[in-house]
What we know:
The chain is an all-alpha fold. The protein has helices spanning 3-39, 44-72, 81-97, 104-132, 138-163, 169-188, 208-214, 223-244, 246-254, 258-290, 294-313, 317-343, 347-350, 357-386, 390-407. It has one domain (3-189, 219-407): MFS general substrate transporter like domains (Growth Hormone, Chain: A, Up-down Bundle), CATH 1.20.1250.20. The protein contains 15 helices and no strands. Helix 3 packs antiparallel against helix 4. This is MFS transporter.
Amino acid sequence: MRPSGLRRLSFGLLMVYVAILAINSGGLGILIPDLISRLDEAAKVGNLAIVSTVGFLANVFAQPIAGALSDATRSRFGRRTPWMVGGGLAAAGFMIGLPMAGSVVTVALVWLAVQLGVNALQAAATALVPDRFPPAKRGGVSGMVGLGITIGNAVGAIVAGTFAAQGALPYLVLALLMVVVVGSFVLVNRDAPSLGSAPAVERVPFSLKAFLKGFWVSPRRHPDFAWAFASRFLMVIGFYGAQTYGLYILRDYVGLSDTESTAVAAQIGVVLLVGVLLSALASGWLSDKVGRRKPFIVWSSAVMAVALAVPLFVPTVTGVMIYSLLLGLGFGTYISIDLALMTEVLPAKAAGARSTAGRDLAVLGLATTLPQALSPSIAAALVGLTGGYPVVFVSGIVFVIVGAIAVLPIKSVR
Length: 414
């Protein structure tokens, strides 16, 4: 693919991740906690943990299945496009229905459906990186994806925080963003047809036995893959504990009212975005330039650890803003490097194949979805045991530091 085509595809992936993360951050960060709080204020922490866990556990199955099926898909539109379009439409449609939920169970079920769509879309979009980008260019696209993740987090927080009191409006805005972005992407960045007498890409037939076997990647045969999985698992579980309960932290730890907390949550999204803008693109480009990944992961962990410590000593709006800026700087560096590192430790790469990249990246995606599923329950249990939110920040510090240590034994990536 020509450089202009790679740049266009990189920007398109950035926008896809903006749409994905806008729904995730706006929904799980503000809209769902607000819905749950209005349904049952006394049990909101436990109920949010239930809804979050149900959604994230679905991700554990949805993303690997969608990744494997997209590897095997044959259509005139290519392997990835059907899953991107179908996933995007499902996520948008159920997002519109979310404010109609009248019970915690209904909220959980509708959010589950949203997450199934989001993960089908994400599995197919992520597989486009090893499909179309040479290894030397993956740091740059990883930086663009990382930037998209953070812009999406900010967009979701701004839309949800600004319009939270406007009924269905924030849900409609986020759903419309998803439809427009995915529709534009598949029209501008057309996938190679995988159907015909001479398909442009290798087809791997879907086999249930092979798929289930593919969930297990031997740490002995592929130690780098195992270390990368462990590193991402720990980094994500450290990051999401505090993020999941961000709205409640503003209300119950900082002491803001419901109206003030949603407004500040929107401001936090902007501050977080500024931090990532200052680090993500520069880190991805610099990583490609120097040919190294691991030092950037270690640096990002150190910055995130400092960020998580700030609210412990400054439990005010100012402290939360400083925490958000530093977290953006650290997380921006991490997500700008992480995807590039992951594509370089795939078992398929070691075997000289590319056809199972969707499945392998989706299996690595479990290192994101599993801790996302576990972190709300872990955080809720810790808050229940200690009676406060400081333990969430302390545990986050421990996890991100250990996550950086886990990347050091990887031998195939410098």
